[in-house]
Amino acid sequence: MPRSLSFAMILTLFAAFSPAAQSQDRGAPAPPAETKKPKKVWTNENLSGANGAVSVVGDLKNKPKPASSKPANAQYVASVRKQLDKLQGEIADIERQLLDLKNFSEGEPSTSASGVKLNKSYEREPIEVQMRALQDKKKDLVSKIDALLDEARKKGIESSELR
After folding, report:
1. Are 152 and 81 spatial neighbours (Cβ–Cβ below 8 Å)?
2. Distance between terminal CA atoms of the chain?
3. Hey, CA dihedral for 25, 27, 31, 37, is it positive or negative?
4. Range of 95's domain?
């Protein structure tokens, strides 16, 4: 019996202090909320009431500088054109090799003249691996071409001058 009595006493005390604790939390003042000034949105109807200058496009001080109209260095253009031709020739060779490998994997004849490459060694890599390596090499060459064209554009050379 003493055990049930002590349990009842603990339960009564717990019930008595729970509402008291909750009422103290409710009565505590809340911290003051910071009030921010709302931002004003100007429309065409109320724009006439705006004070001060209104920038529509931007500052006149930060105008972009006009592109220089000096002619491109002919020697540089020729050098870039030569590099581009070399890279495009390498891409064409890779595309031919990819076509040969694709034809070989499908059982079709090779696109090369004799079909037999006497100066080439035997490849032990699977055709898919060879094709993936060639495609990666092609992507690398395309990125080099893009870098050359970007550099030329930064120097003021139009892409039409390089073709």
Report:
1. no
2. 104
3. positive
4. 74-162
